[in-house]
Each structure stands twice: as structure tokens, then as C-alpha cells.
């Protein structure tokens, strides 16, 4: 080839690359440390602690946990199938009710796909029918005029469509239509800053549907929705580089990595986001196993769409447990944390003294034991979710919001948030 032609070709390739979302490699030790965080969670194979997202994240990562991983999948199958297909008595138990709900079932189907399993058996077909039934119910809840909203959220709605799609199961046009309408009319954005997570999940679902389109009439709307989502997510990039916040960035990157080269400067935006991610990983911002499970695929240049044709033979490095840091010999410093609840009468405000490094959950426990305070939680895949405060339970579409005084929503849950000395944490009952 003539040198000029070769140069033009090369600059063309480089130009297209600049328009693609590519993750630069990050230090393998950092990735390994994240994987090591997951290991203790994989020992928790009691039914209520099982988390299919951890399995999916690990299988799409560059790391493996050997037999621990096999045992984990075995436990997932045992507990999920028992609950989903089991007897009436297992369905009465509350843990089974959680497992047989929409989002966890969708994640379980993704976990099966991560092990290169297609659901084809009679039992498998029942799981698919159940997920389709959930979606039909959600569709009814949204209503003909799109005035309602899903019982769960557009996040779980999208996740369920994605799970059916990667198993190449048909999703009814009217179900897809509701999600298209929500994205076209910003209905999902009623859920505040979490809209980037929802958009990314919807974007992944649409990108999968685009590849297995059953009804070609829907194609133009799906393609437009994917473009709209990409634009929205790129617009949501913060000056630090995050799409939304640091915890929505992994899913946003999963979606953007599936984008074809486009006129927008996608490549530069993704490079900035990955630099921010790397800094946050180094600062220890990723401790929560669910968050790590959404991040690990990105660091291995994979997305949930790789579950369409997963590579189950890909070499992955064996994880070895981290060497525990010896406990500090000194007695930790005591810090003060104030707890403030304005959504009750009379308002509650009290200061507690706890060891430095205590979590917000430790503060709540101390308040419960000594400060005339009560609270309740429900275990979720992200950890303990606060459901009641001072006897006030959340109602339909309400939640107890965690705030850094005066008005900044926390980006972590009660188990992960570590208040600083002198900090005031607010708990506020809000609608979403
Ligand atoms: C929808 C959603 C919500 C909804 C949940 C209600 C509903 N019926 O769906 C609402 C708006 C209430 C909500 C609240 C909060 N959320 Co939220 N939420 C999500 C979202 C978009 C999807 C969760 C989901 O459905 N997962 C799939 C299903 C299958 O899993 P699941 O475990 O069964 O789902 C339940 C839990 O996830 C729980 N939940 C939702 N958010 C959170 C956050 C924490 C910390 C915990 C423990 C549980 C929890 O509600 C889900 C439905 O029951 C995720 C996005 C993501 N990337 O994961 C963020 C996300 C998990 N939320 C987040 C945060 C920070 C919160 C809040 C702490 C915000 C605040 N300052 O108050 C609160 C929780 C406070 C509390 N009471 O404990 C962060 C967590 C980051 C982290 N470091 O772990 C995420 C990743 C969003 C983000 N990018 O910042 N959330």
C-alpha cells in the first residue's frame, strides 16, 4: 500500500477509535483487590445472603474463584429454583418472596447465562413465564395512558427485559413499548439522580433488543431511544468525569461501551470517566459487593450484553484471599456523630460518641440501645435498606433518605457510610 494511503487509513482507524468508548487498562493489582472483596461474600451461601449479581460480575471479570464459584452457582440454583418452582410452603417464606420477585429473578437468569446456560427445560420455561408475567403486571400498573408507574422501578423493568433478551426469549412489543414511552417522555427520571442507572439499564436492554428484533416496526424507535439515552448519559457527566455519580458510572460505561462509533466525542468522555473511576477505586470507594459486581465487567472490557454469547473458556486469573491487615494496637479515637430526624413529631436530634471508622449502621445501633431511637431494615442485594425510623414505616413509593446535613443525599447505604467526626446525618421520609 502507498504510504499516503496507509497513513490515511491509520488516521481513519484512530479517528473512529476516538469516537468509541474504550476503557484503558487499569492496574491488575487494583482489579485483584476488588475481586478479593467479593471472596468473603461468596462464603455467605445462606439463602437470604445469596446475590446473583456477584456471580455475574465475577464471570464477566478477568478473575475467578475456582470451586468457590461453582459452589456459589450451585447454591444459587438450589435456593432460587426451590423458591421459584417450589412448594407453597417455601413460597410463604419472606426470603422466598424476595427471590421470586422480578429483579432478583432477572439477575438469576443472567447468572445462568454467565455460566453459558440457556434456559430450555420445562423448569426453565416456568422461570421465563414467571418473568414475563411480572412484566405484564408492571405494564398494567403503568396503564394505558402511561399515567401509572411500575410496582418496582423502570430499573427492574429494564433488567427483566434484558434478562429475557440475552436468553433470546421474545418480549411482547407492548412491554417494550412502555419502556420506550418512559424514555421518550422522561418518566423514569422521576426517580431523581438515579436516572443514569435506569437509563444505562434501559440502554443495555434496548441494545440487546436491537440485535434480536422480532418486530421490525419497532426498530426505528429503539434506535432513537438508544441515541437519546447516550446523549442523556453524556450530558450527565460531572466535571470530575462521573456519569451521574461514581456509583452509576460503571453501568453507564457498560452501556456506552456497546455504542458504535458516533459523531460525539464518546471516547474522550469515557477516558475521563475511567480516570475518575480509577481514582475512586484507589480511594477505596468501592467496598460494596453489588457495586463491585457492576464495576468488574467494565474493567475487563465486558458488558451485560456479552451474556448473549458469553465466552466461558476465557482465561481468568485465580483469586487468592487477601492477607488480613493486623488489627491496630492503639485504641481508636472516639468521634461524635449527630443523628437528626425531621420527619417525626417531635423532631429527633441527638449526638453519639462512637469509635472512628464506625458505620452509620453502628451509630443507629448505638442510638437504639442508648438514645430512645428505633429503626428497622430489610436485607437487599445492596445491603441493609432502612425501612422504618422511630416507628414510621415507609409507605407506597416512599423511602427514608440518608442525608449529610443540611441537604446532601448520601451516596452509600447505612452499612457502608462511615460518618466523619462532628458530622450530622439526617434521615428524611421522602416520596420518589
Ligand atoms: C431504584 C433504586 C432506588 C429506589 C428503590 C425503591 C424501589 N422500589 O425500587 C429508591 C429511590 C427508594 C432508592 C433509595 C436509595 N438509594 Co438507590 N438505587 C436504585 C437503583 C436505581 C436500582 C435498585 C434495584 O432495583 N436493583 C435491582 C434489584 C434486583 O436488587 P434489590 O436488592 O432487590 O433492589 C432493592 C435494593 O437495591 C433497594 N435499594 C435501592 N437503593 C438502595 C441503596 C442501598 C444502599 C441499599 C442498601 C438498598 C437499596 O431497593 C431495591 C428495591 O427494593 C440502584 C442502581 C444500581 N446501580 O444498582 C440505586 C442505588 C443502589 N441506590 C443508591 C443509593 C445511595 C440510595 C440511597 C442510600 C440514597 C439516599 N441518600 O438515601 C437510598 C437508600 C436509603 C435507605 N433507606 O437505606 C446507590 C448505592 C451506591 C452504593 N454505594 O451502594 C445506587 C447504586 C444509585 C447510585 N448510583 O448512587 N434507590
From TrEMBL:
Bridged cysteine pairs (disulfide): 21-270, 165-208
- Keywords of this protein's UniProt record, alphabetized? Cobalt, Cobalt transport, Disulfide bond, Ion transport, Metal-binding, Secreted, Signal, Transport
Q: Where are the transmembrane segments?
A: none
State the signal peptide span: 1-18
Name the InterPro entries on file.
Answer: Cbl-bd_prot, Cobalamin_Transport
One MF annotation (Gene Ontology) recorded for this entry = cobalamin binding
GO CC field:
extracellular space
Q: Name one GO biological process term.
A: cobalt ion transport
Superkingdom to which the source organism belongs? Eukaryota
Instruction: Give compartment(s).
Output: Secreted
Binding locations of cyanocob(III)alamin? 152-156, 197, 245, 294, 385-386, 400-402, 410, 432
Entry's PANTHER family? TRANSCOBALAMIN-1/GASTRIC INTRINSIC FACTOR, TRANSCOBALAMIN-2
Subunit: Interacts with CD320 (via LDL-receptor class A domains).
- Could you tell me what this protein does? Primary vitamin B12-binding and transport protein. Delivers cobalamin to cells.
**Protein family membership:** Belongs to the eukaryotic cobalamin transport proteins family.
Name of this chain's protein: Transcobalamin-2
Amino acid at each position: 500500500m502507498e504510504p499516503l494511503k496507509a497513513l490515511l487509513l491509520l488516521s481513519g482507524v484512530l479517528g473512529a477509535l476516538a469516537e468509541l468508548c474504550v476503557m484503558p487498562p487499569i492496574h491488575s493489582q487494583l482489579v485483584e483487590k476488588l475481586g478479593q472483596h467479593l471472596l468473603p461474600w461468596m462464603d455467605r451461601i445462606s439463602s437470604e445472603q445469596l446475590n446473583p449479581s456477584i456471580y455475574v460480575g465475577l464471570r464477566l471479570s478477568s478473575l475467578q474463584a475456582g470451586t468457590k464459584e461453582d459452589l456459589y452457582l450451585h447454591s444459587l440454583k438450589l435456593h432460587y429454583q426451590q423458591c421459584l418452582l417450589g412448594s407453597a410452603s417455601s413460597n410463604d417464606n419472606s426470603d422466598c418472596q424476595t427471590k421470586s420477585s422480578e429483579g432478583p429473578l432477572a439477575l438469576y437468569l443472567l447468572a445462568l447465562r454467565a455460566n453459558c446456560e440457556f434456559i430450555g427445560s420445562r423448569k426453565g420455561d416456568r422461570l421465563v413465564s414467571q418473568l414475563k408475567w411480572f412484566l405484564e403486571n408492571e405494564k398494567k400498573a403503568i396503564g394505558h395512558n402511561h399515567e401509572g408507574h411500575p410496582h418496582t422501578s423502570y430499573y427492574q423493568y429494564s433488567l427483566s427485559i434484558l434478562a429475557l433478551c440475552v436468553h433470546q426469549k421474545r418480549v411482547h412489543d407492548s412491554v417494550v413499548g412502555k419502556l420506550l414511552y418512559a424514555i421518550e417522555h422522561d418518566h423514569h427520571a422521576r426517580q431523581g439522580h438515579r436516572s443514569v442507572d435506569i437509563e444505562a439499564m434501559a440502554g443495555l436492554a434496548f441494545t440487546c433488543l436491537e440485535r434480536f428484533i422480532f418486530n421490525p416496526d419497532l426498530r426505528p424507535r429503539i434506535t432513537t431511544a438508544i441515541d437519546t439515552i447516550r446523549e442523556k448519559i453524556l450530558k450527565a457527566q460531572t466535571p470530575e468525569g462521573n456519569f451521574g455519580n461514581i456509583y452509576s458510572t460503571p453501568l453507564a460505561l457498560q452501556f456506552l461501551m456497546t455504542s458504535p462509533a458516533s459523531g460525539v466525542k464518546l471516547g474522550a468522555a469515557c477516558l475521563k470517566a475511567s480516570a475518575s473511576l480509577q481514582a475512586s477505586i484507589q480511594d477505596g470507594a468501592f467496598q460494596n459487593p453489588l457495586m463491585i459486581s457492576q464495576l468488574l465487567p467494565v474493567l475487563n472490557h465486558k458488558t451485560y450484553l456479552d451474556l448473549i454469547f458469553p465466552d466461558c473458556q476465557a482465561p481468568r486469573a485465580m483469586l487468592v484471599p487477601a492477607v488480613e491487615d493486623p488489627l491496630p494496637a492503639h485504641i481508636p479515637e472516639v468521634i461524635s456523630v449527630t443523628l437528626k430526624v425531621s420527619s417525626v413529631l417531635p423532631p429527633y436530634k441527638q449526638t453519639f460518641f462512637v469509635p472512628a471508622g464506625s458505620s452509620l449502621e453502628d451509630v443507629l445501633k448505638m442510638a437504639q440501645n442508648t438514645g430512645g431511637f428505633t429503626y428497622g431494615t430489610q436485607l437487599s442485594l445492596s445491603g441493609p435498606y432502612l425501612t422504618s425510623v422511630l416507628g414510621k414505616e415507609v409507605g407506597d413509593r416512599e423511602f427514608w433518605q440518608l442525608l449529610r446535613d443540611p441537604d446532601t443525599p448520601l451516596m452509600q447505604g447505612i452499612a457502608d457510610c462511615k460518618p466523619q467526626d462532628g458530622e450530622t446525618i439526617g434521615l428524611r421520609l421522602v416520596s420518589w
